[in-house]
Amino acid sequence: MKTVNIHAAKTQLSKLVEEASQGEPFIIAKAGKPMVKVTALNAPVGKEIKRLGFMAGQISVPDDFDRMGEKEIERLFSGGK
């Protein structure tokens, strides 16, 4: 995420607001200290942000997942070659 100082935000406000409205939020800082975050009004906030399950249906786990590499792991831990 882009961080701009107050002076740069003043001089580039139109451009920055347009970018934020397109989904590229930015932070305005004063003396290097972040002060505010500017995001689009339709951007999800708080509980609206969905993280769990965002890839549901896009990946599959094999039935033998918990046994994959079982023999190799056993060999490595038993000191075998």
Protein topology:
Layout: E1 2-5, H1 6-11, H2 13-21, E2 26-30, E3 33-38, H3 70-78
Spans of at least 5 consecutive residues with low confidence: none
Helix and strand composition category: alpha+beta
* CATH homologous superfamily assignment: YefM-like domain
> What fold name goes in the CATH topology slot?
YefM-like fold
Strand content: 15-25%
Shape type = elongated
What CATH architecture label applies?
A: 3-Layer(aba) Sandwich
Q: Class, according to the CATH hierarchy? A: Alpha Beta
Percent range for helical residues? 25-40%
Strand runs, count:
3
What's the rounded overall pLDDT mean? Answer: 87
Helix count from the secondary structure assignment: 3
H/E series: EHHEEH
Spatially, the strands of the biggest sheet line up as 1-2-3
Distance between the termini: 49 Å
* Total discrete domains: 1
Rounded to an integer in angstroms, the radius of gyration calculated over CA atoms is: 24 Å
Q: What does it look like?
A:
This protein has 81 residues and is of the alpha+beta class. The chain has one domain (2-43, 51-78): YefM-like fold (3-Layer(aba) Sandwich). The protein has three helices and three strands; from the N terminus they run βααββα. The chain has helices at residues 6-11, 13-21, 70-78, and strands at residues 2-5, 26-30, 33-38. Strands 1-2-3 form a three-stranded mixed sheet. β2 (26-30) and β3 form a beta hairpin. The longest helix is centred in the first third of the chain and has 9 residues, at 13-21. The mean pLDDT is 87.
Structure characteristics:
alpha+beta, YefM-like fold, single chain, 3-stranded mixed beta sheet, 3 strands
